Amino acid sequence: MTALTAPVAQPLECLREPVGDPQPELTRLPPVPNKERGAGKGGRNVIAENDELLELDYNNIVGLMGTYAFQSEAWWRTNFVTIELQQIHRQKNDMDLLNLLNDLREGNKPLSKHDSTIQALKTPVKLNQEGIIPTELHPRNVEVDRVNKVELDRLNGQEAHFAGKDSVQFDEYYKTKLPQLWSSVEDVPYPPRYHEATAEADTLDEEKKKLIESREYGKLGDIDEKIDRLKKEADDIKKSFDKKTNSTWASLNFSVKEKSQVMLIWNLDLPAKLANGSRGIVTGFVDSNEYRALIKAIVDRKTAKPDGSSGHQAGQQTHGDKSGGDRSVALSDGYAAAASNSTIKPS
User: Fold this and answer.
1) Structural domain boundaries of the chain?
2) Could you tell me the CA-to-CA distances from 230 to 210, 223, 241 in Å, in that order?
3) Helix 115-122 crosses helix 95-106 at what angle (to 10 degrees)?
4) Angle (nearest 5°) at CA 187 between 184 and 191
5) How many CB atoms are closer than 10 A to CB 22?
6) How many CA atoms does the CB half-sphere of 214 hold within 13 Å?
7) β-bridge mates for residue 40, sequence order
8) What DSSP designation does 229 have?
9) 43: how many CB neighbours lie within 10 A of its CB?
10) CA torsion sign, 253 to 256 to 262 to 267?
11) How far apart are the C-alpha atoms of 278 and 266, rounded to whole Å?
């Protein structure tokens, strides 16, 4: 956020001589400054100069406090506590980029000392051996959809259409760990504690009614507080759960072709490096029956007993090895999802 580059109001001035009025205390507003004083049309660009950024005395209630929100008087009245994160993750192996970002954030000049880093950032990124294209960032979904459509149309081959809704039975391990992941394809039940708190509140409500009907008011005690506390607990659980399950990023319908660029949008299985932002390329398709057989084979291998027999029965869900990688996520009639898809090349 930026403040105005010129004051739109100033403190009232007291005229030494009346203007058409004998009252000496008559006040008037000073003239509004010419708009040419602001940035643009040759005006002073206070952001680029990065000076003191003060047009009026800092004690004035009305006036330009600074270019940035944190330089305003209102900001300081909030008594915010500034916290600087010290542990570096993404740029820990690129100190040149890290130093550039720090100087940009802190307003340190000149930036000419970072010319080599800036030039390197302008250099097109080379494709890796799998042909994965660097991810583009756009501010609006409509722009993302437009770019994806253009790139999809450039590919040869037939489109495969998928719907974000399906009738599936999910592995309970993943289902309880990542309810937001399955919300677009299945109604996930609220956590057990939600139902427990709701039932306890209803029981106390009934008890309260009986005590009032029998005029045993002395036994009511703090029953209202208990009911309110339980209802609030259930409501908080519901709001938190709904927030997770309603924030799906995936489209309800989407199309892909062979060689389509794809990206995972949830942390599905971190040990298997299936994380939010993981990139891949579609290398082929299999029909639903073949894919279901593939998933069953994976489950049978993960649940095989020492004697070589399988501990899995048709339609039975299994947690398998929780370390991830190729464990079954879901089984369904005709459709399935797995943590490891043989038709996708992970980045």
Assistant:
1) 141-184+249-346, 192-245
2) 19, 11, 17
3) 110
4) 120
5) 6
6) 10
7) 43
8) H
9) 14
10) positive
11) 9
Residue 203 is encoded by which pair of tokens?
């029981």
Residues 198-227: pLDDT tens digits? 999 999 999 999 989 988 888 888 999 999
Q: Where are the alpha helices (DSSP H) in the chain?
A: 46-49, 73-77, 95-106, 115-122, 141-154, 172-177, 179-182, 192-213, 223-245, 288-302
331, burial (CB in 10 Å: exposed 0-12, middle 13-18, buried 19+): buried
Q: Tell me: the pLDDT tens digits for 122-132?
A: 888 777 777 88
* 115 CB-contact burial (10 Å; exposed 0-12 / middle 13-18 / buried 19+): exposed
Q: In whole angstroms, how far apart are CA 220 and each of 104, 131, 231, 232? A: 63, 71, 18, 20
Question: Contact at 8 Å (CB) between 171 and 318?
Answer: yes
Which residue do the tokens 């995972």 mark?
Answer: 264
Residue 276, pLDDT score:
83
In eight-state DSSP terms, residue 125 is P
Closest CA to 98 of 109, 86, 81: 86
Taking the CA atoms of the chain, what radius of gyration do you get in angstroms?
32
Q: Rounded distance, CA 60 to CA 304, Å?
A: 77
Q: Which two tokens stand for residue 234?
A: 């259930």
260 and 282 Cβ atoms separated by less than 8 Å: yes
User: Residue with structure tokens 């949008």?
Assistant: 265
- CA separation (Å) from 101 to 90, 91, 104, 106, 145? 12, 10, 5, 9, 30
pLDDT by residue (tens digit) across 42-71?
Answer: 444 444 444 444 444 444 444 455 677 877
The residue written with tokens 């990023």 in the block is: 249
3-state secondary structure of 117: helix
CA distance 230 to 219: 19
Q: Are the C-beta atoms of residues 275 and 268 closer than 8 Å to each other? A: yes
